[in-house]
Amino acid sequence: MAGFHHVELWVEDLAEASAEWGWLMARLGFESFGQWSTGQSWAAGGAYLTITTSPNRADGPHDRRRTGVNHLAFHGGSTTAVDSIMATAAEHGWTPLYQERYPNAGGPEHYAGWLENSAGFKAEIVADRELGSRL
Length: 135
Known about the structure:
The chain is α/β, with parallel strands linked by helices. 18% of the residues lie in helices and 34% in strands. The strands form two sheets. A four-stranded mixed sheet has the order 1-4-3-2, covered by helices on one side. Strands 5-8-7-6 form a four-stranded mixed sheet.
């Protein structure tokens, strides 16, 4: 068996994270399937993303440049869908990254946008139909 079962992100501010991740997950076709006092989950394609606060969490902000997870990459659908997400992301707490090289910051054959939320988590939104691909 291959593939991810789930990813869990520990966050400092659950309300802010729920708003930012909730918007992005909905735009990417994920559906909310659980919400409780310390977390929330969204699922699509047999996998899910959970954000949660934890009493075991160390204080301090997330820094994607430290050892650990740098970013999460998501299937974004068509190039038009990726463009739409990137165009409205700032209205929902996400800062577009590498805009001077958008949509090919990952190389000429890779159509994607990168976003960073207020907590410093980075998401990559990859077009299903990349330039030069056979799709």
